[in-house]
Amino acid sequence: MTAAEICVVGVGYVGLIQAVGLASFGQRVECVDLDPRKVEMLKRGVPPIFEEGLEEALADVIDRDLISFTTNIADARSADLFFVAVGTPTSDRTGNARLDYLDAAISSIAEIAKDGAVIAVKSTVPIGTCARFQARLDRDHPEKSLHIVSNPEFLREGTALNDFFNPERIVIGGANEVARDRVRASYAGFEDRGVPMILSDTSTSETIKYAANAFLATKVTFINEISDLVETVGGDIDQVARGIGLDSRIGPQFLKAGPGYGGSCFPKDTLALATIGRRHGVQQQIVETVIRINDSRRFRILKRIEAAMGDKISGKRLAVLGLAFKANTDDVRDSPAVDIVHALLEEGAEVRSYDPVAKFSVDHRCYSQHESIAAACEGASAVLVATEWPVFKSFDFAAIENLVERRYIFDMRRIIDLGAAWATHWDIERIGSPMQK
Ligand code: NAD
After folding, report:
1. What is the pLDDT of residues 191-250, one digit of tens each?
2. Which residue numbers delimit the UDP-glucose/GDP-mannose dehydrogenase C-terminal domain (predicted)?
3. Protein residue with its CA nearest to atom 29 in ligand 1
4. Which residue segment(s) compose the domain that 106 sits in?
5. Hey, is 317 helix, strand or coil?
6. Are residues 264 and 149 in the same domain?
7. 8 in ligand 1 pocket by Cβ < 6 Å?
8. Per the structure, how many domains does the chain have?
9. How many angstroms is it from 82 CA to the middle of ligand 1?
10. ipTM of this predicted complex?
11. What are the Cα distances from residue 89, in Å, to 101, 264, 266?
């Protein structure tokens, strides 16, 4: 096997896609992760995450000898380009993004990297982080010249591979042009295809990432507020969304009423942006309001479920369909579905869940996860659809009508076929539609 020129540090949702994607272009990639379990699985060709097409793409680059996995960063000594994709979760204390994983990753790279190596930060980091790490490298490693470049990631879980191969833009921020060009060269195929390339300083690049996520979170929150209005004044929220989304200045995406945004990015990135704004005395009032509205949404949903249960959730058995924060992923980080499970348990309900892929466990005697929709719905007083998995769209009401205690569905994703529900005499309520009296 020839020595790798590219190393990816942190092979989670972002790093693994980046590594497999670059390798599939014929570039040799060494992947480093601290988690020995992940590395062992990957060596055997088993992706530790669920992502459409990933297993096949991984098998292909393993067969072509273009990718390898290790826990030892020293194995990547030959690389001249390091992509860092470690987590930057919220610090509970400050709301800021935690940088300890990034700090550890960059320090370990700096120890082994050769002179002139480039470190491209794919992790989402507070504005100013890359400049600060650059200053530290210059101070602590005067013996070699190492360059930090910001290269934020925009993939979406669930369509991550497709997003890698069809990016809408690539953002590369850095003070050193040669370093920026090294990162740019790794994406040469995209540039040839006309994918817009934004070359900037590191602050601009870091800001683009936070601003993009904050804007999308705002869009989701906006339609959710309109949906609350429609619940009261009447109308059809899907038609409202379509009616505004057809305006090309607005666009149709992220206008689906639901339980509020979740996942590993929007909640933490909006919070980090708000914290950055406050720290710099430039309060991000829109983003702060979005966070507040989104947080209160779970409570509003709980109240609606409570009202449908005759104001008594305690002691009731409820089925929650879907645990992942959205369809086509196994990621349950900051998932609205999981928040709702917790809230229902706190209210004294018994919760039985089902998700086609995601796993979630909580040490609570009233919680259980099941292997099928039918098993989760057994004896349920209400079926709550919390994730928009396609399999729930074709929900077979007849198959479970005799299993449930009451034929009632609360559809937080507006995906259930109303006609089929009514035909089989189910009560159905949906976010964005008025409550039944
Ligand atoms: P993740 O938790 O899935 O993966 C991070 C990986 O880094 C883990 O496997 C962990 O073991 C490894 N790691 C931590 N410290 C390490 C170290 N010092 N050396 C080697 N490996 C180390 O995280 P993720 O979801 O891939 O997110 C990574 C970053 O990308 C975050 O900053 C996130 O905000 C950003 N991002 C994520 C997404 C997404 O959809 N998940 C999209 C865009 C940007």
Report:
1. 999 999 999 999 999 999 999 999 999 999 999 999 999 999 999 999 999 999 999 999
2. 319-418
3. 123
4. 6-200
5. strand
6. no
7. no
8. 3
9. 14
10. 0.99
11. 9, 8, 11
